[in-house]
Amino acid sequence: xxxxxxxxxxxxxxxxxxxxxxxxxNRRKSSESDKGNPDExxxxxxxxxxxxxxxxxxxxxxxKQQEWWRGIDGRGFELGVAKVLLExxxxxxxxxxxxxxxxxxxxxxxxxxxIIIQCKAHKSYVSAGPVRELYGTLMHQKADEAWLVVxxxxxxxxxxxxxxxxxxxxxxxxxxxxxxxxPISMNS
Length: 188
Fold this sequence. Notes:
CATH class of the domain at 71-176: Alpha Beta
Number of strands: 5
Distance between the termini: 93 Å
CATH architecture of the domain at 71-176: 3-Layer(aba) Sandwich
CATH topology of the domain at 71-176: Trna Endonuclease, Chain: A, domain 1
Low-confidence stretches: none
Structural class: alpha/beta
Number of helices: 6
Shape: elongated
Strand order of the largest sheet: 1-2-3-4-5
Strand content: 5-15%
Helix content: 40-55%
Order of helices and strands: HHHEEEHEHEH
Radius of gyration: 30 Å
């Protein structure tokens, strides 16, 4: 008897499906009129192809930029960071040298605040040690803020140590995405 009820229930469900879905006027039907005219289809196809190529090109350019940042030496990285900051409108002074920079590669002045920057062109993530050193340099230099700019990234210990301190941890990618602080004049 229960089998009969089960079959009856299945028939009701199937009939309800057919009535609701198959006879529903709002249901999208596959017909020639839905496909649009051939010109529209061609335009949409070309647009999707163009959009795909544009995304791929942007991805390739990003990969090349990241490879470039990771492939340069320490001094080149310092100068590259300085160039990016200059382009963003910062007042930058390069202090780094191979014979001792006291932990400061660049000095920024922003809204009368002194910001010291240490650049690290490391292939792997940076641990808490360089962040601790930068904090000591920040105290010694009596600067308002310190930035540690690296080519790779930071371990959690580095982020934990910097938390709550006037230390900003940046990768080269973060640096490039900083907003400009003032418009750059094209006439100068």
